[in-house]
Amino acid sequence: MEYLDFELPIKELEDQLDKCQIIGQESDVDVSNTCKQIEKKLEETKKEIYKNLSAWQRVQLSRHPNRPYTMDHVRALCGETFLELFGDRGVKDDKAMIGGLGKIGGQSFMIVGQQKGYNTKTRQYRNFGMANPEGYRKALRLMKMAEKFGIPVITLVDTPGAYPGLEAEERGQGEAIARNIFEMMRLQVPIITIVVGEGASGGALGIGVGDKVFMLENTWYSVISPESCSSILWRSWEYKEQAAEALKLTSFDMKKQNLIDDIIPEPLGGAHFDRDTTFKNVEKYILKAYDELKDLSTTDLIEKRMDKYSKMGEFKE
User: Fold this and answer.
1) How many CB atoms lie under 10 A from the CB of residue 8?
2) What is the dihedral of CA 172, 177, 178, 184, to 10 degrees?
3) Are 40 and 102 within 8 A, CB to CB?
4) pLDDT, tens digit, for every residue of 25-60?
5) Rounded to an integer, what distance in angstroms lies between the CA atom of residue 98 and that of residue 107?
6) Dihedrals φ, ψ of 94, to 5°?
7) Within 10 Å of residue 154's Cβ, how many Cβ atoms?
8) How far apart are CA 310 and CA 47, in angstroms?
């Protein structure tokens, strides 16, 4: 397990606990009371740290290398039923955007999401979760296929942003994202969107329009990352913590502003500490949302979706 800077007190206590247990196993000394005291201190420290996380610390947790990525969620939710589909039928298959058909709770879904890599090789293969235009066009192709066959759509958001390279701009990155937003607004099947990691800028919005939008507890959703915001405002990345607070990018900030529908709770310490519980929570929210949406007529579904997004940004004194 890798530890973030603010988690080091936890690491120290866990190391002490391991040493205490080893001493108890290798000698005749009774250290059970000492171990219990350390365990109690460890639990208290965890609660103290994780119940008082700053916006920047939640950003760090959303990027934790042990955090489950999109394909981890898909495998846990769908098991052997997931069938991955490839290509945008125009340029190529974008490895940063995955999609396919799978069953959750006996119900078929079209699942689309950004996928990051686990090590240097796979991060390059997945382009660090930053999709090119063909990735968004592939996502739209799959969503249109789902619409044709009346299959609900799930999108899993986890990206530091759409790929900003010259070739991406040449192939119409902005148009591809805008087209997805436009088409998702009027898609004739239910859309459930979940931010499972990072939700940055237009890269997230390109698959982020949903009838129900959820965020896992330790994720963020914003027009810009804290580092980029800091570099623009202060010409330095040193103010990223202040930028994170100012951007109001946490799940709790987003819920307070009515920009998302609900927050999916994570186990103490983050999704990576107890993956099974995280996956069960995600499944519960998906099935609950689908139950609320499945009986709506196409007209009502689209009207409610349009109304939901039209109200965002309204301000009354």
Assistant:
1) 11
2) 140
3) no
4) 788 778 788 888 988 998 999 899 998 899 999 999
5) 20
6) -85, 115
7) 29
8) 39
Residue with token string 């119900």: 107
pLDDT one-digit tens code per residue, 88-144: 999 999 999 999 999 999 999 999 999 999 999 999 999 999 999 999 999 999 999
Backbone dihedral angles phi then psi of residue 103, each to the nearest 5 degrees: -110, 135
Residue type, 162: A
How far is Cα 53 from Cα 270, in angstroms, rounded to an integer? 11
Stated pTM of the model: 0.91
Q: Is the Cβ–Cβ distance between 159 and 204 less than 8 Å?
A: yes
- Collapse the DSSP code of 161 into the 3-class scheme (helix H, G, I; strand E, B; otherwise coil) and give the result: coil
Residue 182 makes CB contacts below 8 A (sequence gap 6+) with none
Closest CA to 152 of 312, 299, 296: 296
Of 315, 308, 302, nearest to 147 by C-alpha is 302
How many C-beta atoms surround the C-beta of residue 269 within 10 A? 18
Which residues of 137-218 form beta strands (DSSP E)? 153-159, 191-200, 212-216
Task: Tell me the CB-side half-sphere exposure of residue 108, using CA atoms within 13 A.
Answer: 10
Taking Cα atoms as reference points, which of 216, 239, 143, 157 lies closest to residue 185? 143
Reduce the DSSP state of residue 171 to 3 states and report it.
coil
- Distance from C-alpha of 102 to C-alpha of 208, rounded to nearest angstrom: 19
Q: Please, what sign has the CA dihedral across residues 299, 300, 303, 305?
A: negative
Which of these, 223, 292, 295, lies nearest to 262 by C-alpha position?
292
Which residue bears the tokens 């990206």? 159
Q: Are strands 153-159 and 191-200 parallel, antiparallel or unpaired?
A: parallel
